[in-house]
Amino acid sequence: MTTNAMAVPGQSYESLRDEVRGLVQSWRQAGRYSPSSDSWLRGFDPEFSRELAARGLIGITWPTAVGGRGLSNVARLAVTEELLRAGAPVAAHWVGDRQIGPAIVRHGSERLKAEILPGIISADYVFCLGMSEPEAGSDLASLQTTASRVEGGWLVKGRKVWTSGAHHATHIYLLARTTRGEKKHVGLTEFIVDMDSPGIAVSPIVDLAGEHHFNEVSFDEVFVPEHRVLGEIDRGWAQVVEQLSFERGGPERFLTTYPILAEIVEAPAEAVADVAVDVGQLVARLATLRELAWQVARALDAGDAPVQQAATLKYLGNAFEHDVLEVARKAFDGGHGRRGRLGGSGFRSALLASPGYSIRGGAAEVLLSLIARQEIM
Ligand SMILES: Cc1cc2nc3c(=O)[nH]c(=O)nc-3n(C[C@H](O)[C@H](O)[C@H](O)COP(=O)(O)OP(=O)(O)OC[C@H]3O[C@@H](n4cnc5c(N)ncnc54)[C@H](O)[C@@H]3O)c2cc1C
To answer: How far apart, in whole angstroms, are the C-alpha atoms of residue 246 and residue 364?
Structure first.
């Protein structure tokens, strides 16, 4: 098969796409990276991120006044699609570029913008997400980490878990309880915290694939200065819900396994003949998911928080990725002696990582209930 599974016509931003394609190609040819699945979470290479930064490809949607390029989320989607389809090592800047920067642009004080955004744009700051806790994942508003007022700021106590990339991070986005009241969704506040603050400890958690990418992060009376509050005190819930549409509505929710799909598509026809129909169906679904991602990007450009569209994209995208792996299992291990010839795109490690796809960023069942709350026409 020779079809290019990403060749959906009618898109602009070709020059951005070309620039990213050229960059990843030159890195591959120089042996500086090999394409991998899940590269936005596991492909950590600060040098690669800095190269993107030098080309102005991080923070491109942010206003020029804060160092961005004032381009649309649709333009950013062209860039992120190309990076993911190449399985490029983008984890170092992904969280800052995708959601923390945009959250600061929307809700941050001028001081916070000036202090944090340039470091994200230059790829010097690496962010991790401190949301989940041992007893608060799907039910995030039940979190127990507290931030109590002290002179000049806040004192944070508690524990975060499953914190991807915390061992590499310079900063953590932290959601903590600042007021305890009757309603658990009220009284939460967002903070930006330096990872080298005294009192922070990071302990590794090794996953099913035997890899260390997530961690437990504990806060033992960590002082956070007042100006590191992000947005409104006690009203962090509305902000975090908005942020989740940035987190869930991007192409990483259906392109995580693209290098594997590409390997099947590019294989000699006779080697993958018995999955040809499956692959055709996958490519058609991929086109639909891309269309949904464009809709989410357009909604973000309109200043909306497309919570339900993003949940829909993530739910359908995770189902798609699951099916890519099932088709790959057939293609790579179909009893025709193909093992060893195919599967170089990281099939094995993707398979081991895949149970996490439908949990991270919101469990599938929770997304279904969000989707079900849409107005029925
Ligand atoms: C690879 C990976 C990376 C992650 N990275 C981060 C990170 O960087 N930062 C961070 O903060 N968190 C991170 N997480 C954590 C992730 O956000 C949580 O695992 C997720 O929100 C689910 O929470 P939980 O693990 O506590 O599961 P629980 O909330 O205990 O849910 C367990 C299961 O119960 C079911 N369930 C729960 N609630 C409902 C409901 N209301 N309706 C129906 N069924 C329900 C679902 O089947 C769900 O899968 C990561 C997780 C993974 C797997």
So the answer is: 17
Q: 45-90: per-residue pLDDT in tens?
A: 999 999 999 999 999 999 999 999 999 999 999 999 999 999 999 9
* One domain, residues 297 and 359: yes
Instruction: Confirm whether 247 is a catalytic residue.
Output: yes
Burial of residue 29, with CB atoms counted within 10 A of its CB: 0-12 exposed, 13-18 middle, 19 or more buried: exposed
Asked if the structure places residue 134 within a domain, the reply is yes
User: Given 81, 133, 247, 252, which residue is catalytic?
Assistant: 247
Taking the centre of ligand 1 as the mean of its atom positions, its distance from the CA of residue 315, in whole angstroms, is 14
Question: Is residue 4 domain-resident?
Answer: no
Instruction: Please state the domain count of the chain.
Output: 3
Find the residues whose C-beta lies inside 6 A of ligand 1: 128-132, 137-138, 162-164, 214, 356, 359-360, 362-363, 365-366, 369
For residue 5, tell me if it sits in a domain.
no
Is residue 88 included in any domain, yes or no? yes
Is there a contact between 372 and 279 (Cβ–Cβ < 8 Å)? no
Residues 190, 166 within the same domain: yes
Domain containing residue 109 = 14-126
pTM above 0.90, yes or no: yes
Burial of 21: CB neighbours in 10 Å, binned 0-12, 13-18, 19+: middle
Report how far ligand 1's centroid is from the alpha carbon of 362 (Å). Answer: 6
CA of 63 to the centre of ligand 1 (A): 33
